[in-house]
Amino acid sequence: MRTYSTKASDIEREWWVVDASGQTLGRLATRIATILRGKHKPEYTPHMDCGDHVIVINADKIRVTGRKLDQKVYYWHSGYPGGLKSISLRDQLRQHPTRVIEAAVRGMLPKNRLGRRMIKKLKVYASDTHPHQAQQPKVLEL
């Protein structure tokens, strides 16, 4: 028997729409990361980008459990001395709701050039409209 190895020409990409309203952040992010990686396909190959495109709508209606709204903090550094900045999840959802889902999914993808290529297939929108109707995306039920 021979081991099947997927070629780049064999990969067929689909488009999926996910409605985030009322969904728990972590459980939604794991499902999205699985689709971006392509692990839901039988021809999944770990060293290749076999995943599909994912469109997330209603990102501002995401739900979190416990006291994460006040206790979860996002950090980044400006590059200057003393430039450590932070923002709570509650403020991040108010100012930039799309970044919350993007950060959660990015943390579940590989930390290399393959992961950077996968995260480009994620499109997140705060409202229920998106400009990708021409791709005829399928609705993903979670």
Low-confidence stretches at least 5 residues in length (pLDDT < 50)? none
Q: Strand-and-helix sequence, N→C? A: EHEHEEHHHEE
Strand content: 15-25%
Counting helices, strands and paired strands, the structural category is alpha/beta
| CATH architecture heading | Alpha-Beta Complex
**Radius of gyration (Å):** 17 Å
Overall number of domains: 1
- Described by the principal axes of the CA atoms, the overall outline is globular
Instruction: Give the class-level CATH name.
Output: Alpha Beta
The CATH topology annotation reads as Ribosomal Protein L13p, Chain: A
> What's the CATH H-level homologous superfamily?
Ribosomal protein L13
Number of helices: 5
Strand order of the largest sheet: 5-2-1-6
Q: What value does the average pLDDT take?
A: 96
Secondary structure tally: strands: 6
End-to-end Cα distance: 37 Å
Brief summary:
By secondary structure, the chain is of the alpha/beta class. The protein has helices at residues 25-37, 68-71, 89-95, 97-106, 113-119; strands at 15-19, 53-57, 73-77, 84-88, 122-124, 138-139. The strands form 2 sheets. It has a 4-stranded parallel beta sheet, with helices on one face. Strands 3-4 form a two-stranded antiparallel sheet.
